[in-house]
Amino acid sequence: MPVGSTRSYGSFCPVAQASEVVAQRWVPLILREIMVGYHRFNEIRHALPLISPSVLAQRLKAMEDDGLICRRTGPGGAAYHLTAAGEELRPIVDGLGHWARRWITRDYRADELDPAVLMWSLRRHVVPARFPPGRTVLHFQLEGEPRLRRYWWIVVRPGAEEEVDVCRADPGHPVTLTVTARLRTLVEVLMGDATLAEALREGRLVMEGDRDLARRFETLVELEGSESHLFAGRPMHSGVKA
Hints:
By secondary structure, the chain is α/β, with parallel strands linked by helices. Helices cover 39% and strands 19% of the residues.
């Protein structure tokens, strides 16, 4: 790091020096996305919809300079992977999530509830191998959200090059299962603050369509408490359709 950098705490303390590298805004979240299998720029950008492309590019470059990640170029373009130093941060990032779940207990503010963040969080917990062969289309209707943020689709194709897609526009295929709920309800179910059974029983969440998929939904997407284990999601091929 350059002498006099604004990132510097001006201290030889190892905690201070580590914080200069790891505790910058967005860096832990970018690390998390790479750790769960999002390696390309657009994958990370879609998974972190509130970060601007320019800031993401700056952070990735700084993380590369700091030795946390390396950039590899292949047939599909550039991809970012953890170095040995970055890999050693995995239990630390995971531990931050566990610490927050234990000690930061409060209701989610409205500005903390974003549909894109929810959809990409759901996506990382999809288990394609448990879906039937062919194409399954999950349609999510977020009650109370503005029209452009209300409708989302997750398309699952086991064995395909891109097994799971997140779509913000109708992908044009028949819907297999529709899930209707408020954004807050789905976040609570994902985070383990409420169970899917409770939300269904109370009428806060409704499923319509394939009954077998509805019955097995928790095993297909592994909802119950899944976000409390940040790396429970499986690395997978990905795609997003705007």
